[in-house]
Specification:
By secondary structure, the protein is an alpha/beta fold. Strands 1-2-3-7-6-5-4-8-9-10 form a 10-stranded mixed beta sheet, with helices on both faces.
């Protein structure tokens, strides 16, 4: 990276912080208009800058912006400027918070193309990424990465867990510059990543509502690469965004680019090698990738027993694969489980069921529940009827049902507070009291008629310790799983495959 592109920390960041604060005070249309006007000036402190502001913004908003920018300065938010090869201006402005010394060291990134939402601990890119990041930390590089997708977060986890210096390029306004609730939500999710001694958070965005999400992602990826003196490409898809960005970088400047090579991916990265990237290996020479096929039915060749039934009147809570951390599991612990190949790290529907039995707890969720009210979903359908409803939902990237679940005596659950869902339309929703809204389910949508699921709901978490074991039945797919459940949890389990 040439010296002109090295980020320069400003002695006086106040004008830049003021603009970001001012944009936050305006509605989206007004903010966009002002942003376009200000973008015409190379420096925010241009001679007639004040006149431009006063012409387009009310005095009250200006005063609030002054107060907010002063608050950000007290919180040690700063600004740096860097000349990068982005082709969209003479300089790039970064708002930052954390350890600015991270910028002084050589910087490197470990990148991969976007991953499927279901991650398997056997995926080779996980362990190759882990070893590549450890190599960089040992060589005293500052790691450039981001948050919000598996590849970046795994890289970040490894850097922080290895006590390395990490630079996060965010695709939103810095959380510390947003509302208290947004900042707290961010810290609740990523607190173990944000070590003030080792982490620096940077964002090129003073305001984001009018910037397309996908454009922000691409700009973030471009900045991660452009800020890096060394680039290690682990799992790059031919013709994808990452290949395009690395190719551009190789043609415009001369960073150290290393491409991880296996016997199966040579053709995927041959273009990068032709441009000057060097092959490298981490870990085993030949790695067997566990491939996830979007839309591939894992139950396609499994025949479910449509004659099977339970020995009483039960409500069934079906478990499903969990994308990312479990409810109650931190993001940091999730990546730790992947790297260490914990038994349940894949988070399959069977893993979810075992976790429920281990904790003796079914956690309530707000996902897909109108009103964001936490509850647990059950069905009173017979097993044979449910099996006919197993469909792939492309929009949610998941199955309607998977053949794993826990059945609980209907009378017991009713006594504890379970109630049938109320299927209806928007008018029915408005008529419901706040106490009953957790039961609402739209009866029909473009995806189908949901009333066929005969759903019941239970408010809040369900403590299974309050339910006798003889009132519980466990449903699994295979005979071996049923034997394991019976032996380890002392409950009746039945397999549903033929």
């Amino acid at each position: 990276m040439d010296s002109g592109s090295l980020p320069k920390i400003l002695e006086n960041p106040q004008p830049y912080l003021f603009i970001a604060a001012l944009l936050s005070q305006l509605n989206q249309s007004a903010a966009h208009k002002l942003f376009i006007i200000l973008s015409q000036y190379n420096e925010y402190h241009a001679d007639h800058f004040t006149d431009v502001i006063e012409k387009h913004v009310k005095q009250a908003s200006i005063q609030k912006a002054c107060q907010l920018s002063d608050l950000w300065m007290k919180k040690q938010v700063n600004v740096c400027i860097s000349s990068l090869n982005l082709g969209d201006g003479d300089h790039q402005v970064f708002f930052g918070y954390g350890n600015w010394d991270n910028l002084k060291a050589n910087r490197a990134c470990v990148i991969s193309s976007r991953k499927h939402k279901t991650i398997n601990p056997k995926d080779a890119w996980i362990h190759t990424t882990y070893e590549a990041v450890q190599f960089l930390i040992q060589e005293s590089y500052s790691l450039v990465t981001s948050l919000g997708n598996y590849a970046y977060e795994l890289s970040a986890y490894t850097g922080i867990a290895s006590n390395g210096k990490v630079i996060f390029i965010l695709d939103t306004l810095l959380p510390i510059m947003q509302t208290r609730s947004v900042f707290q939500s961010f810290m609740d999710k990523y607190k173990e990543f944000i070590d003030p001694k080792n982490a620096l958070l940077l964002s090129p965005f003073p305001y984001t509502p009018f910037i397309n999400r996908h454009d922000r992602y691409r700009y973030r990826d471009e900045l991660v690469i452009e800020l890096s003196d060394m680039i290690i490409a682990i799992d790059i898809r031919k013709g994808g965004n990452m290949e395009s960005l690395i190719s551009k970088t190789l043609q415009q400047r001369h960073p150290k680019v290393k491409v991880f090579i296996t016997q199966s991916n040579v053709k995927e990265v041959e273009h990068l090698l032709e441009l000057g990237a060097k092959p490298c290996r981490f870990g085993e020479d030949i790695l067997d990738y566990y491939n996830h096929k979007l839309g591939l039915n894992p139950y396609k060749n499994i025949k479910l027993d449509t004659e099977i039934d339970l020995d009483g009147d039960y409500l069934i809570h079906f478990t499903r694969s969990c994308q990312g951390p479990w409810p109650g599991q931190s993001v940091f612990e999730y990546y730790k489980s992947l790297v260490n190949k914990h038994d349940n790290a894949e988070h399959t529907a069977c893993d979810t069921l075992k976790r429920i039995l281990d904790e003796r707890l079914i956690r309530a969720s707000t996902k897909l529940i109108r009103g964001n009210i936490p509850c647990i979903s059950f069905t009173e359908c017979k097993l044979k009827d449910i099996f006919n409803l197993i469909l792939w939902r492309k929009g949610l990237i998941r199955w309607t049902f998977e053949p794993y679940g826990i059945a609980i005596d209907k009378e017991v659950l009713t006594t504890l507070g379970a109630m049938p869902a109320i299927y209806g339309n928007e008018t029915d929703w408005k008529k419901l009291s706040d106490e009953q809204k957790f039961r609402f389910q739209l009866n029909k949508s473009s995806a189908g008629d949901w009333s066929t699921e005969k759903e019941w709901r239970f408010p809040l978490d369900l403590n299974l310790k309050a339910i006798p074991d003889d009132k519980i039945r466990i449903i699994v797919q295979f005979k071996e799983e049923a034997s394991y459940i019976r032996n380890d949890y002392n409950v009746i389990a039945l397999k549903c495959s033929r």
